[in-house]
Structure formats: structure tokens, C-alpha cells
Amino acid sequence: MKPISNFFFLCSLALTLAVLPHPILADGASDLVQQVCARTQNRQSCLTTLQSEPDSKTANLDELGVIATKLARALAEQIAERAKEVLLNKTSLGPENEQAVRDCVELYEDAVSQLDSANAALLSHAYSDLSLYLATALADAETCEMGFSKPGLLTEYHTKFSQLCDTASAISRQLDKK
Questions:
Q1: Domain named Pectinesterase inhibitor: which ranges (predicted)?
Q2: Domain of 117?
Q3: What is the pLDDT of residues 16-28, one digit of tens each?
Q4: Whole-angstrom Cα distance, residue 151 to residue 145?
Q5: I need a labelling partner for 57 at 20 to 30 A (CA). Which of 19, 33, 66, 78 fits?
Q6: In-domain check, residue 10
Q7: 131 in any annotated domain
Q8: How many whole angstroms separate alpha carbon 90 and alpha carbon 95?
Q9: Using CA of residue 116, residue 42, residue 85, residue 136, what is the dihedral sign?
Q10: Are 67 and 55 spatial neighbours (Cβ–Cβ below 8 Å)?
Q11: CATH value at residue 74
Q12: What is the dihedral of CA 62, 65, 67, 71, to 10 degrees?
């Protein structure tokens, strides 16, 4: 082979290797997700949720926190909207449950606000504030669930939201130790 051919071959090889995913980085991120989820109450839910997010594969701990917080926020918005829909079809609700659903709308709207604050705390590395905002968002959800005379109307949503908050809290605890 001519020297110029060798040069182009080596440049092509180097460029190809540079753009291929690096298994060490991918494994490291995967290990990080595993470590985070090992510290949650529902490991499998955490793994499923974080691994379904493409950005989690290369994320550091702060970035995983942003992902988990944004997912929890999006679900809190969905739950508030679902509760509003339930109120529109209130013929099946008794007076007790109607008030509980109204309370849930307010509580989940507050949870959205708390999660916005949690994300801001995360981005500014105020990890103790992050923990407080996450705990308050989770308390909003717990208060909503306790307002029903019997579980059922929003329980499935509440369970998923609690799991997302647990994931974000596990990340927060690890960040607080940094």
C-alpha cells in the first residue's frame, strides 16, 4: 500500500471508531442507572422508566435527576388533567369523592410547581432543597390519595407518580452525598 492510502485508511478507521458508541461509557451509564435503582423501593419500575429514556444511557447523576424530575412533573400534569376529566363526568361521584377529586386537582397542580422548583434546585446544585421539593410533591400525592373514601379513582396514577418521586429522591440522596 502507498503511504497516502495508509493515511486515508487510518483516518477512516479513526473516524469510524470515534463515532461508534463507546461500550465503556454505555456500561458506565447503565451501571449508574443500576446503582440508582438499587436504592429505590421499586427497582424494576425505576429500571424500566430510566432505561426507556434514551438520554439516560449517557447521563451522569445530575442528568438522571433532571430526567426523573421531568418525568414526575409530566405525570403530575397528566394526573391533574385526569382529575379534571373525572369532575366533568361527576355523575358517578358521590359528594365525598367529588371534593376529594377537587382537592387532588389542587394538590397535583402544587406538585407540578414543587417539581419545577426541584428541577431548578437540581440545576443549581441545591441538593438539600431538591430533597425538600421532592418530598413536598410526594406529600401532595399522598394527601390526594388519602382523601378518597375508598381507593380506586386515581390510585394507579398515584402509584406510578410515587415510584417516579422515589426514583428522583434516590438520585437526590446520592447527589447530596457528593
A1: 28-171
A2: 25-176
A3: 433 333 333 334 4
A4: 7
A5: 78
A6: no
A7: yes
A8: 9
A9: negative
A10: yes
A11: 1.20.140.40
A12: -170
